[in-house]
């Protein structure tokens, strides 16, 4: 007689499911900051203020002036798989930064989350609290505009994850990097980051009256020198368009950390970029020198899959060779036009 397996397999509880998902979506404080700031951008905010105390372990607060939520939306927003962004379940034509409907539920599963919001055009504000996966009833609150998210005691309900947190300083720096990248892609939004005592990052809103909006914003983040040493990039190949700014070879760095790539407005990390940049600059720079650049690739949504990773930091291109070719040729073209010849610099 075979032993019966009945009763061994069971469905996990919603709370456990959320905590497992949270492990993927909210790996560290910077991932929570990323999700929350992306939500504010998606909500059409023109200013987003972030406060992180103790590297985000004690508090992450994100305040925006976006369209906000009414009581019903607020209650749904913190549920898993609840999103306002995926119209007709269409995973191809994704126009927003979010679409998975997991961030708020995940954060609520591993922290004490309070979401306070006022829907644009309404004069009532509401708040909902979620603690360790338990949702409380939506209550009236006071708020003049937009949405305020407070995340306290991150990972208090997942001690294993809590143990792996780096120093407050490291977590804060990581979050700063996340905000910086989002700020590069959204010059029309004002951003600040504060540690509770001091504002350490500030990107004022850039309006179209101030000349080249994108260069203005990049200059505010990467420095005035970048602005003065950057070549404009604008190239097309098939349905792909590459724009942005690339630093002159004479204005280079000892590491490749200042190479930023955005795909359809989404900051992505892709090894393809570093490789293409190395290829384009190889005649102009020694092997241990790297340019600073920010490139914005716009492609039809069917050309790219952003749903590769829960944190959405990676994307997959239908034709990576085409992307690489476009980047290399656009950079080479700009460098050649700027009259920098290989013979004038130390080649590696
Ligand atoms: P997603 O962003 O993938 O939709 P989230 O869990 O991050 O999932 O958010 C769920 C929903 O809550 C969003 O689709 C949006 O409707 C709403 N929401 C979240 N943050 C904000 C915000 N700052 N302002 C307005 N609405 C928000
Ligand atoms: Mg989101």
From TrEMBL:
Keywords: DNA damage, DNA repair. GO terms for cellular component: mismatch repair complex. Residues 218-336 form the DNA mismatch repair protein S5 domain. One of its GO terms (molecular function) is ATP binding. It comes from the Bacteria. One of its GO terms (biological process) is mismatch repair. This protein is involved in the repair of mismatches in DNA. It is required for dam-dependent methyl-directed DNA mismatch repair. May act as a 'molecular matchmaker', a protein that promotes the formation of a stable complex between two or more DNA-binding proteins in an ATP-dependent manner without itself being part of a final effector complex. Belongs to the DNA mismatch repair MutL/HexB family. This is DNA mismatch repair protein MutL. It comes from Kordiimonas lacus. The chain holds residues 8 to 355 of 637 of the full protein.
């Amino acid at each position: 007689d075979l032993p019966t397996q009945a009763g061994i397999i069971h469905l996990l509880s919603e709370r456990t499911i959320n905590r497992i998902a949270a492990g993927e979506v909210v790996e560290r404080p910077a991932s929570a900051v990323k999700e929350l700031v992306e939500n504010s951008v998606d909500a059409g905010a023109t200013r987003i203020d972030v406060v992180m105390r103790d590297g985000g372990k004690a508090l992450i607060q994100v305040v925006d002036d976006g369209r906000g939520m009414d009581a019903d939306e607020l209650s749904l927003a913190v549920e898993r798989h609840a999103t306002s962004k995926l119209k007709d379940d269409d995973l191809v034509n994704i126009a927003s930064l979010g679409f998975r409907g997991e961030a708020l539920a995940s954060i609520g599963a591993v922290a004490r989350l309070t979401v306070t919001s006022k829907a644009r055009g309404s004069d009532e504000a509401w708040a909902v609290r979620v603690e360790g996966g338990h949702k409380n009833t939506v209550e009236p609150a006071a708020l003049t505009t937009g949405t305020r998210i407070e995340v306290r005691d991150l990972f208090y309900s997942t001690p294993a994850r809590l143990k792996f947190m780096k120093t407050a300083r490291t977590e804060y720096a990581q979050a700063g990097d996340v905000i910086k990248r989002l700020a590069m892609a959204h010059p029309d939004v004002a951003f600040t980051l504060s540690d509770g005592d001091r504002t350490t990052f500030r990107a004022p809103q850039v309006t179209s009256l101030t000349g080249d909006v994108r260069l203005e914003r990049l200059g505010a983040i990467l420095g005035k020198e970048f602005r003065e040493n950057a070549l404009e990039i604008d190239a097309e190949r098939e349905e792909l368009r590459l724009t942005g700014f690339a630093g002159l070879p004479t204005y280079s760095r000892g590491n490749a950390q200042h190479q930023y790539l955005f795909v359809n407005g989404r900051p992505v990390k892709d090894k393809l970029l570093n490789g293409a940049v190395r290829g384009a600059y190889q005649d102009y720079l020694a092997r241990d020198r790297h340019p600073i650049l920010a490139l914005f690739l716009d492609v039809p949504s069917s050309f790219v899959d952003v749903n590769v990773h829960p944190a959405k930091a990676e994307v997959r291109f239908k034709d990576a060779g085409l992307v690489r070719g476009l980047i290399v040729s656009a950079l080479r073209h700009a460098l050649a036009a700027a009259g920098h010849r290989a013979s004038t610099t130390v080649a590696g």
